[in-house]
Amino acid sequence: MSEEVRKWLIDIGEAIENIDVHLGRKRDFSLYQANITIRRAVERELEIIGEATNRVLKVDNTIGITDARRIIDLRNRVIHAYDAVDDVIVWGVILKNLPALKQEIRDLLAVD
């Protein structure tokens, strides 16, 4: 794996960790929805995850990131359709998808 790809994978891992920091390690949808600062911070981290995923796949499409297209699509929605971001969908990503992605990134980085 190239250093460039490794850096982007690290960026994805750090963005996931930052989401935990923004949420205070809590998983309370009502707190998330009530705090625009937290929502915007999480959305920014999702943008980073999506952009880094896109860059990885452009350089090396053999890197297996599950649901990569959906990750990139979410990034595009947050950036380009910011007024149509659904908090429920973002919350579902936080709960269901990020833990698996976090482990997948760790595994990819451990292989190299």
Automatic annotation (TrEMBL):
<dbReference type="Pfam" id="PF01934">
    <property type="entry name" value="HepT-like"/>
</dbReference>
<keyword id="KW-0597">Phosphoprotein</keyword>
<keyword id="KW-0547">Nucleotide-binding</keyword>
<keyword id="KW-1277">Toxin-antitoxin system</keyword>
<dbReference type="InterPro" id="IPR051813">
    <property type="entry name" value="HepT_RNase_toxin"/>
</dbReference>
<keyword id="KW-0540">Nuclease</keyword>
<dbReference type="GO" id="GO:0000166">
    <property type="term" value="F:nucleotide binding"/>
</dbReference>
<dbReference type="GO" id="GO:0016787">
    <property type="term" value="F:hydrolase activity"/>
</dbReference>
<dbReference type="InterPro" id="IPR008201">
    <property type="entry name" value="HepT-like"/>
</dbReference>
<dbReference type="GO" id="GO:0110001">
    <property type="term" value="C:toxin-antitoxin complex"/>
</dbReference>
<dbReference type="GO" id="GO:0004540">
    <property type="term" value="F:RNA nuclease activity"/>
</dbReference>
<protein>
    <recommendedName>
        <fullName>Antitoxin</fullName>
    </recommendedName>
</protein>
<keyword id="KW-0378">Hydrolase</keyword>
